[in-house]
Amino acid sequence: MDLYHVLNRGIDGRKLFLDSQDYARFVHNLYEFNDTAPALEFTRRDTHNSNVGFPKPYIRKRKRLVEIHGWHLAKNHYHLLISELIEGGLATFMKKLNIGFANYYNERYRRQGHLFQGKTKKILLARHEHFLYILHYLHLNSLDYFPGAKKWRERDKGIISNIPKILEYLREYRWSSYLDYCGTPNFPSILTTSLFGDALGTNYVSSLKEYLMDRTSEDIDQKLLEY
């Protein structure tokens, strides 16, 4: 199985998510467009009616294109960890996802033209170290908006003393797979947790804390983190 780090950002740094409705719409699309069936046309009210975020949502039958092993939405970009279930599934899924969200966004904000900055980047995670750390990296992106931890990428010394507040902040940020890995159902119907659950153990929070505190561990190559 090949695992890919998939990412894209708004053109010219444009914010993709201006409010909770935009975030919810993208999450809704992560579920709905992961299907070999043709993409459906969704109106804005579909997001409000969707129960994809509830612990026991209605799950219609699908033939999925990909498995989503992790995800994070920032204000102007997104990160996904994806493996294919069928040949060509990744390309098909990303095309449906990007076009679907761009159509929604342009209609809602009465704009035209491209929304994303170039082609979606798909980076194969070939090294064991990358596999172990990449999920932590995705979830820790939330700290870019937390004043006390903006140097988390360098694992600054101040991070260690701030870990309790960091973990509290991560739990308050809904738009990632972090809560589901912590055992708190958030958007469980879009996520496959078994791959990283087997590798990192059942206590995901402990694994993430060890990563933050281990300032000697090998960093992930910058090209895998580019956004």
From TrEMBL:
Sequence ranges assigned to domain Transposase IS200-like in this UniProt record: 1-141
Gene Ontology MF terms: DNA binding; transposase activity
InterPro entries in the cross-refs: Transposase_17, Transposase_17_sf
Protein's name in the database: Transposase IS200-like domain-containing protein
SMART domains on file: Y1_Tnp
Any Gene Ontology biological process: DNA transposition
Classification lineage: Bacteria, Candidatus Kaiseribacteriota
Organism: Candidatus Kaiserbacteria bacterium RIFOXYD1_FULL_47_14
SUPFAM superfamilies: Transposase IS200-like
PANTHER family xref list: TRANSPOSASE IS200-LIKE DOMAIN-CONTAINING PROTEIN (PTHR34322:SF2), TRANSPOSASE, Y1_TNP DOMAIN-CONTAINING (PTHR34322)
